[in-house]
Give the backbone structure.
Amino acid sequence: MFFLQKEKDLVNKIDKEKLPQHIGIIMDGNGRWAQRRGMPRVYGHRAGVNSVKEVIKSCGELEIKYLTLYAFSTENWKRPKEEVNFLMDLLVEYLSKEVDELNKNNVVINFIGDISVLPDKCKIEIERAQEVTKNNSGLVVNIALNYGGRDEIVKAVKKICTKVLNKELSVEDITEQTISENLHTKNQPDPDLIIRTSGEKRLSNFLLWQSAYSELWFTNVLWPDFRKKHLVEAILYYQTRKRRFGGI
Ligand code: IPE
Ligand code: IPE
Ligand code: MG
């Protein structure tokens, strides 16, 4: 009861006029969370799903427009095969269980990253999730899966080069907007706020182009322990920042 009141007090401090439109989260620390409990790493991935659910629900309540969750990087294939398989299975399980509820809550599910190389069982659930929720008008949740900022930029360059070769675009007309429009996040605002859990202070290839002017918030909290109050803390921090975008 006391705990809930404290959370409410925190939420009440948020200035609704100055909400970040787009929040990105590097969900890190699942393995360490499990290891601290003497459990295998995958136990932490499973526990992390509860944090995902709470964060999506909270962003909906707070009327955030876009949330990008970093779920699997292009570098995470370096992990043991068993862990990678577990993560893919967990995604399938999560989507098959949660899509109806997300749909009821007016959430749009959108995947960013190279989905084409994923196992078929993942692709089927991903396509279903995107199809079922595509006409919703609430929170857009981008799930960054097999996502790498550099890979995304390489793919954009290739698309742009193809347009130039096909004479659909001239080299002189290439602008920053051309690049933005050829990224997975086209038509979306850049992230205003990026959160990383587990104490690491790096981007690890997350939204490299889009994060040019993002505010960064780091916490030692491990992802499976991340709750609404931490999200609210990050938003309150964000609201104290003076964003200059190079101006004065
Ligand atoms: C984040 O937790 C989840 C993924 C990268 C898939 P980690 O698995 O990286 O956990 P730590 O950083 O090893 O504790
Ligand atoms: C970043 O976490 C990727 C995701 C959260 C999906 P990592 O745990 O892979 O990052 P590094 O290796 O510590 O930089
Ligand atoms: Mg990690």
